[in-house]
Amino acid sequence: MGYEEMWRDLLPIGRVSGGGYRRFSWTAADRECRAWFTEEAGRRGLTVEEDRNGNLFAWWDVPGERRDAVLTGSHLDSVPDGGAFDGPLGVVSSLAAIDVLRERGVTPARPLGIAVFAEEEGARFGVACLGSRLLTGAIDPVRARGLRDADGTTWADAMAADGCDPDAIGPDPDLLAGIGSFVELHVEQGRALDVPVGVASAIWPHGRWRFDFTGQGNHAGTTLLRDRRDPMLPFARTVLAARDAAARHEAVATMGKVHVTPNGVNAIPSLVRAWLDTRAPDDDAVRATVAEIHAAAEKAAGEHGVEVALSEESYTQVVGFHAELRDRLAMTLGGAPVLPTGAGHDAGILSAHVPTAMLFVRNPTGVSHAPEEHAETGDCLTGVEALAAVLEDLLSP
């Protein structure tokens, strides 16, 4: 079964009205995606293993000890109402690349693995790249077990309900020690690529922060304006401040998730909880942007008798991909363009532990994390060929 057939079979899983996807960790859609991957890997005679953090690995092994392995792959989970290509393109392309290598009669001199990392988007439990963070020790397992979704279900409870042992989660240095390089193929998530395939140079530093605006719930009809402690007002000021601060620091800042308590039409909220996503070309710009937004939130909260608290939920410093591996990929592909990205990836987490690089496939719409996300079939097939060429080079003696 080739690329187009695999894509056709995966496409309906987790699709919702409006054309987007809701493939959240430890849900029915996630289980179906994992079953699809396990079946496709089995068709190719690959050995499928699940690590203690919920990550899947399919191995094309060579005789002997698994060391200096080449790893590729991506993720299958999505943001709420996300596009079809973010993550799955890398997984489908990895399986298809193995088909290409076998058609060429390639005999790998070292093991080749395909990874499917868990909770890359952080859509359900709030921390992006959670599977790769757990694998590498970038997050405390105690904190990870206590992460909660919108319904109050913890990561530990969700894992246990799927038959996994949450007490076992944590770093796996033995697995990491066996990986010699990691190459992730991903759809490009902007308009920066004007040819079918490019190579990543770096990932912008980025993080997520939570604002809690605490006021006083009250009646919307009987509470005079002067008597209100409405947390929605400083929240609204903070949204505008985020846009202004980002522009001043040449960053991007987004407040795209908010929970309002009690969320009633005729009730003044008692609590507004909102999340800030900030990214920029360098760490100083990110920190300066967040500091300015925080100051604006405190000022607005004080004017309305509201308390505000800020907590950092995750942060990833600038990631410069392994220069030698990056240049090797670009040379293998005949001088493919090299470009940075503002999007976070599991490759960025693994880069602190193994030589890591990324390939991007052109996105003609420039839209991502939305149903309009797209890549032309011809470009995707070019991406498969490019990944196969890179893997063949890395698998050589």
Task: Outline the structure in words.
The protein folds into 2 domains: 3-204 and 318-395, Zn peptidases (Aminopeptidase), CATH 3.40.630; 207-316, Alpha-Beta Plaits (2-Layer Sandwich). It is 35% helix and 23% strand. The protein has helices at residues 3-10, 28-43, 88-103, 130-136, 141-146, 155-161, 173-177, 232-248, 283-303, 323-332, 346-350, 377-395; strands at 47-50, 56-60, 69-75, 112-117, 179-187, 197-203, 206-214, 218-219, 252-261, 267-268, 271-279, 307-316, 319-320, 338-341, 356-361. The strands form 3 sheets. Strands 1, 2, 3, 4, 5, 6, 13, 14 and 15 form a 9-stranded mixed β-sheet that branches. Helix 3 crosses helix 12 (377-395). The model has no long low-confidence stretch (mean pLDDT 96). This is Allantoate amidohydrolase. Keywords: Hydrolase.
Level of helix content? Answer: 25-40%
Order of helices and strands: HHEEEHEHHHHEEEEHEEEHEEHEHEH
Mean pLDDT: 96
**CATH-assigned fold name of the largest domain:** Aminopeptidase
Number of helices: 12
What Rg do the Cα atoms give?
A: 22 Å
Pfam family, one: Peptidase_M20
Organism: Actinoallomurus spadix
Family: Belongs to the peptidase M20 family.
InterPro entries: Amidase_Cbmase, Bact_exopeptidase_dim_dom, Peptidase_M20
Set down the secondary structure blueprint.
Blueprint (H helix, E strand, L loop, with lengths): L2 H8 L17 H16 L3 E4 L5 E5 L8 E7 L12 H16 L8 E6 L12 H7 L4 H6 L8 H7 L11 H5 L1 E9 L9 E7 L2 E9 L3 E2 L12 H17 L3 E10 L5 E2 L2 E9 L3 H21 L3 E10 L2 E2 L2 H10 L5 E4 L4 H5 L5 E6 L15 H19 L2
Parallel strand pairs: 3-4, 3-5, 5-15, 6-14
Antiparallel strand pairs: 1-2, 2-4, 6-13, 6-15, 7-11, 7-12, 8-10, 9-11
Helix pairs in contact: 1-3, 3-12, 8-9
